[in-house]
Specification:
Layout (H helix, E strand, L loop, with lengths): L3 E6 L6 H9 L4 E5 L8 H8 L10 E6 L3 H14 L7 E4 L4 H13 L8 E5 L4 H12 L3 E6 L2 H14 L4 E6 L5 H5 L4 E4 L10 H5 L6 E4 L16 E5 L2 E4 L1 H19 L6 E2 L1 H7 L5
Parallel strand pairs: 1-2, 1-3, 3-4, 4-12, 5-6, 5-8, 6-7, 8-9, 9-11
Antiparallel strand pairs: 10-11
Helix pairs in contact: 4-5, 4-9, 4-10
Length: 285
């Protein structure tokens, strides 16, 4: 039975990157669809469900991608509503690499600091990767400050995470010039997950944080989000701080991505979202 991956991409052109990774992960045929929305995806899901018997449906899976994580989440919710037993297929959400990148970043940090109780700051915390990194950190028991240049957006993101992680220790913080010093005070771990071209901190600013142990910059487009951190840094010590750049995290991100796609074909009942994908990465980190 051929392993078929149905790629539902919210962008007009389905991601070539996601297709290449899927083939490298064992998919034998990829059926790619662009401009997919929560409103038009149901017939595509039915096509995946009704063409094989229940015993063979583990050889069909759905991958949801695209550049906007919110659109991917809406598609995932509709897919879950459409599926029913015994005609289910496994589904993975990784729009814009949001889940695999966030998971890899947190696993990299965990190599050097105990996450439970760590004072963590996520810069760009309302973006797709930052939001999920903060969510994973909160679930691991970290004390998270989710930072944004717009405090109301940070507060809304914290509220969303509290619903997913009951008892989370998470607070909204500012990354603008006025509130940045307070946001960084006592930080042991900083993850920068901002948009391309946004620099949060200069090298002089983050090296002045005496408590800092690990710093991770997930921006791969110059200027990088954290001055003084190199794109290729992988557990590189700079001024007594362990540093990771986007490519330093990227190797683990790719391993997690490939393993998640591989696992889709092990059964027909999996939903691989943030927590499930992060769990998969434990054996790879």
């Amino acid at each position: 039975m051929k392993r078929i991956l149905v790629q539902l991409d919210s962008d007009p052109h389905p991601s070539v990157f996601d297709q290449v990774v899927a083939y490298d992960s064992g998919a034998e045929q990829i059926l790619s669809y662009g401009a997919v929305t929560a409103q038009n995806c149901t017939p595509l899901v039915h096509g995946a469900m009704f063409t094989r018997g229940p015993g063979d449906l583990k050889s069909t899976a759905i991958f949801i991608g695209g550049s906007k994580a919110a659109d991917g989440e809406a598609i995932l919710n509709q897919v879950k509503e459409t599926l029913f037993s015994p005609l289910k297929v496994s589904v993975m959400l990784d729009s814009n690499g949001c889940n695999t990148t966030a998971s890899a970043a947190v696993h990299c940090a965990a190599r050097h600091v105990a996450l439970k109780g760590v004072e963590a700051v996520v810069l760009g915390g309302t973006g797709p990767v930052g939001l999920r990194a903060a969510q994973i950190l909160a679930a691991e028991g970290a004390k998270v400050r989710l930072a944004s240049r717009q405090l109301p957006k940070a507060e809304a993101a914290c509220s969303q995470i509290r619903q997913l992680v009951p008892g989370a220790t998470i607070s909204a913080a500012e990354s603008g010039d006025d509130g940045l010093a307070a946001t960084l005070d006592g930080a042991e771990l900083i993850i920068a997950a901002g948009a391309a071209g946004v620099q949060f901190l200069t090298a002089e600013e983050w090296t002045a944080i005496d408590s800092l142990k690990v710093i991770i910059d997930l921006n791969a487009v110059p200027p990088l989000g954290l001055g003084g951190v190199e794109l290729t840094d992988k557990a590189t010590e700079r001024e007594g701080v362990i540093c990771y750049g986007a490519l330093g995290v990227g190797g683990l991100k790719m391993k997690i991505h490939r393993k998640a796609v591989e696992q889709l074909f092990e059964s027909n009942s999996q939903i691989l979202d943030t927590f499930e994908i992060h769990k998969l990465g434990e054996s790879l980190a």
